[in-house]
Amino acid sequence: MTQPAVSRQVAGLERRTGAALFVRRSRGVSLTAAGELAVGQAREVLARLDALEASLAAYRSLDGGRLRLSAFAGANTAFVPEAVRRFSRDFPAVDVSLTVVDWTRRLEAVRTGEVDVALVTAWDLHADPMAAKYQGVSDPLPPAATAGLDLLPLLDEDLHVALPAGHRLAGNELVRLADLRDEVWIEGGHPDCLGPIPLLSEALGGPPRIGFVCEDWNGKQALVAGGAGVTLVPTLAQTGLRSDVVLRRTVPRLPPRRLFAVSLTGTFRPPAVAIMLDVLTALAAEHR
User: Fold this and answer.
1) Where does residue 194 fall: left (phi above 0), alpha (psi -120 to 50 degrees), or beta otherwise?
2) What DSSP state is assigned to residue 193?
3) 216 vs 29, 80, 132, 175, 271, CA distance in Å?
4) The predicted structure's pLDDT at residue 57
5) No. of H helices and E strands in the chain?
6) CB 71 within 8 A of CB 80
7) 219-239 mean pLDDT
8) CA distance 88 to 98
9) pLDDT at 85
10) Can you give 62-85 as a three-state secondary structure string?
């Protein structure tokens, strides 16, 4: 730069900061106290910019960054842990975490960036799934509720009835739900629950007699094994079944429950999210 150009830059910088940064001398300029402070701050800013560029490069190359997941108890029994294991085996530098988000906020958590990938079921995609349990399947969520989100179907989970190994019907390959009309049922937290209640009630010939509510699958199995009641178990929660509990297909067959992976839509998808979706897709294919 020429000397006049430098002078204009210096004058403009001082006008912008409102402070005298240089002392003009016959043989050049020197920094004032404010100028020394400005230089120190500028060096810190430049160092931060360098660090930002390095971090983004690591993020793009999967040599760093983070991936936040959210799911529900049934998926967390084995499906999500196996997905995390496979992802972390190949990309150990990415910090993977599992975040607890209430099912009523799971879609919004993805939209706001609190979560990168969330697992939800088709039961989460109704306007009022809890009311739907007692009044019939409700209308699906309006398009605005899922705007900006990509819903990737993974698999359809079959619902089997869990019985104590010594139950009178445990030896049957198929169990008529009508034969369980008088049984005590074990309910769980949404979506690991008995599903849309009217469908089950119709098959039973009346509403299920719910005697226990338990959100933990180990607790549910223990209650079934102890003869306290029976319950429904979806595909993902069937891993690690106790030896004193048996699963049986039902007549009629209850409608399957579809599992989705939810992420932000858009042309730019972080590499870690895209790879995790691939891992979930492959794992779901194995379950199918």
Assistant:
1) alpha
2) S
3) 73, 16, 23, 25, 33
4) 66
5) 9, 13
6) yes
7) 94
8) 13
9) 97
10) CCCCEEEEECCHHHHCCHHHHHHH
Instruction: State the chain's mean pLDDT as an integer.
Output: 87
- Which pLDDT tens digit goes with each residue over 166-186? 999 999 999 999 999 999 999
The three-class DSSP label of residue 13 is helix
Residue 5 exposure: Cα atoms within 13 Å on the Cβ side:
2
Contact status, residue 158 vs residue 234, Cβ threshold 8 Å: yes
Beta strands in the chain (DSSP E): 22-25, 28-31, 66-70, 95-98, 117-121, 149-157, 159-164, 174-176, 184-187, 209-213, 231-234, 245-251, 257-264
What backbone torsions phi and psi does residue 184 show, to the nearest 5 degrees?
A: -85, 135
Least confident of 59-63, 218-222, 268-272: 59-63
Residue type, 46: L
Tokens of 213: 């509510």
Contact yes or no for 171/248 (Cβ under 8 A): no
Give the span between the Cα atoms of 282 and 29, in whole angstroms.
66
CA–CA distance, 123 with 140 (Å, rounded to integer): 9
Please say if the pLDDT value at position 111 is more than 90: no
What Å distances lie between residue 185 and 208, 210, 246, CA to CA?
A: 6, 5, 15
